[in-house]
């Protein structure tokens, strides 16, 4: 019984972070219909920015994380204006080629700057575990989960309550109608990529509390992100967070009760089943934030 | 058009004849590299970018330090003080075909007289084939068995073969623990499932079972996929093993696994079988106290108790700000062996250098710092004196702990 409880707690904690970066991926897809294969590299960039600020400039961790968010937002807006804008309205192929090329470019640049060395942050949180009977909880994962939860709720409220959020949702629901009522699609797209990037960067910053950074680290998380957004429904923000939690729990339970080497295989089998049975994901219809 | 055909054919014949003359002239120049040459070019095909760039760059550091020392001491005396000149070639980390083309360029364009490389066995496999084709000797710190089983005449290998590492792992583990009075009744196996590491794990399992010892857990994962190790550590906790043997080639896997293992309170000793990243300086820097008490096998270690090695470690640390890793030390030693071979050959000719390496045997100078106390290349090109050394992490450094004659620190166990 304690094994199951341990698996569920760990699953929820890491699942929250999966949900956080998957929200960024699904937001960009929902608003722009752009599958961003460079999203994993934005997670990696968030990890490196936090690492540099904390380790080299001795910026307090919380301030470092706060700095990373607007920086990554800015990078996202610039990328939209400089690159993504040029492939909007084209077929899927140029988008895929562009984002894959961007992913390889970022990886190579980071490899040149930081080499392939694995780096971790020496924070007071990294190695602390709370022991509750037979259950142990990683303090870093707990902090990461709380940050993910707060940001997910905040983003949800922003989409529902603010004019910008409503405009984004309108653009997703019916772009033509949104344009007719005066919504500036360019601004909305730039905002979506900016927020998507900021969420990836934030996720990277909190993941770094318990996971090392190296230039190819994003690939692992990108694969998980795709499973999460298919599970929760492509373009569905709430679905992405819930999908993240589900994915975390399934991963942990299959590792404990089946085998560690099959934990991701179970996820990808689920991925295929959902695509076949309910392509819009567990959380309902496509095209809603 | 027809009337031009003979003229075009004649022109082509002339061009081919000219090209032929020029290439044969180049070859003659290469063969004529005898005494009193100003420099001797040594090719270094190494992964300088990509996932094993750290190891590739460390190797290059070792070579450059050795070459600087040799050149500062008067160069190759048999060649009138010729300087050794390193010629780098980046093989990348992912495509062995790149190692082949880079080596081909070093041999045919740069006209290197010998090669040192490539650290990664899959890269060395391709590079050594090019070296064999070009009849240029190659010294390597790679150790996959296949490398020395192909009957190549120009391939020479410094460390012990991979199969020797496999055999020694369980021997060393049991010997170290028995000496400390720790009885091993059960072993947990936890490693990545890539061919090399899983193969080693299977061999370890067989060996453990043959010693009437229980394998209480046998878990594996795809390299690079372990984003959280809680489930795995929970299973290990339930299995309650005396020893954990495993490892991973995935960069983050081992870090996440060891951190979770130790933070969960499990004190059983961990023995790494995967090598690679585990013995690198960056592993200690990123793991800090979580690496302490973890054991692994290495081909070389900077704490080996050999006379004179300490000075080299000091020089290396002063030059690069970090202690020499396994491959940096091996590359340094290989460079001195090559220097000895060129001195013996008496000319900068690849074939003569190859012949000098074929009979090479030494237990003096840097060659004596290899495990086994010397270097002797056998008929397959393998160093017949090399033995694996067991290391244990303490205070961000791996220390040699076994066999006893190579010990720089008594093994310790977490309490």
Describe, in plain words, how this protein is organized in 3D:
The complex is a heterodimer of chains A (289) and B (415). Chain A has 289 residues and is an all-alpha fold. In chain A, 74% of the residues lie in helices and 3% in strands. Chain A contains 11 helices and 2 strands, in the order ααααββααααααα. In chain A, strands 1-2 form a two-stranded antiparallel ribbon. In chain A, strand 1 and strand 2 form a beta hairpin. In chain A, helix 1 runs parallel beside helix 5, helix 3 packs antiparallel against helix 8 and helix 9 runs parallel beside helix 11. The longest helix of chain A is centred in the N-terminal third of the chain and has 31 residues. Chain A starts with a helix and ends in a 12-residue tail after the last helix. With 415 residues, chain B is of the alpha/beta class. Chain B has 12 helices and 14 strands. In chain B, the strands form 3 sheets. A 7-stranded mixed beta sheet of chain B has the order 7-6-8-9-10-13-14, with helices on both faces. In chain B, a hairpin with a 2-residue loop joins strand 13 and strand 14. In chain B, helix 2 crosses helix 11, helix 5 packs across helix 6 and helix 11 crosses helix 12. The radius of gyration of chain B is 24 Å and the shape is elongated. The termini of chain B are far apart. About 5% of the residues of chain B have low confidence. The chains are: A mainly alpha (289), B alpha/beta (415). At the A-B interface, helix 1, helix 4, helix 9 and helix 10 of A face helix 2, strand 7, helix 7, helix 8 and helix 9 of B.
């Amino acid at each position: 019984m304690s094994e199951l409880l341990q698996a569920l707690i760990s699953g929820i904690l890491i699942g929250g972070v999966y949900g956080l970066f998957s929200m960024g991926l699904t937001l960009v897809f929902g608003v722009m219909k752009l599958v961003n294969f460079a999203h994993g590299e934005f997670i990696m960039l968030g990890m490196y920015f936090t690492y540099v600020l904390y380790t080299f400039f001795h910026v307090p961790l919380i301030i470092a994380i706060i700095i990373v968010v607007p920086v990554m937002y800015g990078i996202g807006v610039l990328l939209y204006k400089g690159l993504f804008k040029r492939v909007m309205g084209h077929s899927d192929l140029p988008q895929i080629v562009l984002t894959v090329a961007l992913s390889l470019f970022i990886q190579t640049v980071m490899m040149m700057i930081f080499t392939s060395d694995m780096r971790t942050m020496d924070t007071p949180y990294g190695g602390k575990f709370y022991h509750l009977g037979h259950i142990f909880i990683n303090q870093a994962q707990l902090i990461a989960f709380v940050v993910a939860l707060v940001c997910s709720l905040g983003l949800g409220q922003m989409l529902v309550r603010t004019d910008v959020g409503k405009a984004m949702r309108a653009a997703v629901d019916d772009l033509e109608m949104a344009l007719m009522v005066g919504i500036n699609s360019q601004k909305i797209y730039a905002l979506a990529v900016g927020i998507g990037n900021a969420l990836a960067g934030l996720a990277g910053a909190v993941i770094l509390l318990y996971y090392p950074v190296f230039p190819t680290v994003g690939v692992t998380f990108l694969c998980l992100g795709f499973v999460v957004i298919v599970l929760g429904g492509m373009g569905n923000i709430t679905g992405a967070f819930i999908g993240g939690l589900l994915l975390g729990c399934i991963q942990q339970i299959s590792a404990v009760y089946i085998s560690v080497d099959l934990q991701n295989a179970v996820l990808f089998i689920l991925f295929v089943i959902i695509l076949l049975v309910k392509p819009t994901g567990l959380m309902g219809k496509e095209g809603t934030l | 058009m027809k009337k031009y055909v003979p003229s075009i054919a004649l022109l082509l014949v002339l061009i081919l004849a000219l090209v032929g003359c020029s290439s044969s002239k180049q070859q003659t120049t290469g063969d004529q590299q005898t005494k009193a040459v100003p420099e001797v070019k040594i090719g270094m095909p190494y992964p300088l970018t990509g996932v094993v760039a750290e190891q590739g760059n460390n190797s290059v550091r070792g070579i450059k330090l050795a070459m600087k020392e040799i050149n500062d001491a008067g160069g190759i005396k048999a060649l009138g003080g010729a300087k050794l000149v390193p010629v780098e070639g980046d093989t990348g980390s992912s495509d062995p075909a790149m190692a082949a083309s880079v080596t081909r360029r070093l041999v045919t364009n740069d006209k290197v007289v010998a090669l040192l490389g490539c650290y990664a066995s899959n890269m060395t496999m391709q590079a050594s084939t090019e070296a064999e084709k070009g009849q240029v000797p190659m010294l390597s710190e790679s150790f996959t068995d296949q490398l020395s089983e192909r009957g190549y005449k120009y391939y020479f290998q410094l460390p012990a073969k991979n199969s020797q590492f496999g055999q020694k792992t369980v021997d060393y583990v049991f010997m170290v623990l028995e000496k400390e009075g720790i009885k091993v009744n059960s072993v947990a196996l936890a490693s990545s499932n890539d061919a090399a590491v899983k193969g080693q794990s299977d061999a370890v399992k067989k060996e453990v079972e043959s010693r009437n010892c229980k394998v209480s857990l046998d878990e594996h994962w795809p390299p690079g996929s372990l984003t959280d190790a809680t489930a795995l550590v929970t299973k290990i906790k339930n299995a309650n093993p005396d020893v954990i043997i495993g490892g991973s080639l995935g960069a983050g896997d081992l870090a996440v696994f060891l951190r979770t293992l130790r933070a969960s309170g499990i004190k059983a000793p961990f023995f790494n079988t995967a090598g690679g990243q585990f013995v690198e300086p960056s592993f200690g820097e990123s793991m800090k106290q979580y690496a302490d008490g973890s054991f692994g096998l290495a081909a070389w270690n900077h704490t080996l108790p050999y006379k004179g090695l300490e000075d080299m470690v000091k020089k290396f640390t002063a030059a690069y700000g970090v202690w020499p890793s396994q491959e940096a030390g091996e590359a340094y030693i290989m460079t001195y062996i090559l220097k000895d071979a060129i001195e013996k050959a008496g000319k900068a000719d690849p074939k003569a250098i190859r012949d000098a390496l074929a009979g090479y045997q030494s237990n003096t100078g840097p060659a004596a710092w290899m495990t086994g106390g010397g270097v002797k290349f056998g008929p397959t090109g393998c160093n017949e004196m090399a033995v694996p050394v067991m290391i244990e992490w303490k205070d961000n450094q791996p220390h040699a702990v076994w066999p006893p004659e190579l010990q720089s620190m008594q093994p310790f166990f977490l309490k």
